[in-house]
Amino acid sequence: MIATLAAITLYLGLPQRLLIAPRYVLPALELILLVPLIAINPRRLTRQTRAFRVLSLLLVAIIATGNLVALGILIHELVYAGVNDGRSLLLAALQVWLTNVIVFGLAYWELDRGGPVSRTQESRGALPLADFRFPQDENDDAVEEVADGASGTSDWVPTLVDYLYVSLTNSTAFSPTDTMPLSTRAKIMMSIQSVSALLTSLLVIARAVSVLH
Length: 213
Fold this sequence. Notes:
Strand content: under 5%
Strand order of the largest sheet: 1-2
Low-confidence stretches: none
C-alpha cells in the first residue's frame, strides 16, 4: 500500500504536459483498485482469490503504463519541443525514475512464484517455478552464520523490500547484480526497466543538466 501510494504521489507531481489524461484520472482509478485489495487482506497477505490476483496485477500494469507513457512524452518534449526549463525537467526525470523503481519492484513481487500470498502460504513444492534466483537460494553450504539464513535451511522467502532492491540495482547498474532473472518474462521485464532507466539517466538527465548550464 505504501509503495502504491508513493507511486501515485509521484505521478500527481508530474507536469501536466507529461500526462495522457487529466491529472486525477489515473490516480483515482488506482485508488479504486487499491481499496478492495486492502479489504481482502487488511493486515497481512494471507488470502488470495482470482479477483484479488487480477486486481493486483491490473493495478501494477496501470501504474507502469502511466509512467512509461510519461517517459515517452518526456523524451518527445526533449527532442521536438526544445524544453528550456532544466529544473522542472530534472525533477520530472527523477519522479519518472523513482516511479520506475517502485512499479517494477511491485511487478516482480507480484509475479515471482505465484505472488506474495503463494510464497508465504504454500509449501515450496507446490509453488510455480521461480522467476528470480536470490543469493539466499545458494547459501545452504556457506559458513554457518550465512547458511542459517538461506532459503533451504530457514524457509526464507523474499519480501517486497528484496524486490525493490532488485528493481533499484537494475535501474542503476542497467543489469542484474546479485539476483538473477530465470524466466523469460522476468528477463523481458528487467530489459524494459533497464532501457527506460538508461533513457532517463543518459538522455533526460543529461539534457536537463546541459539546460541548467
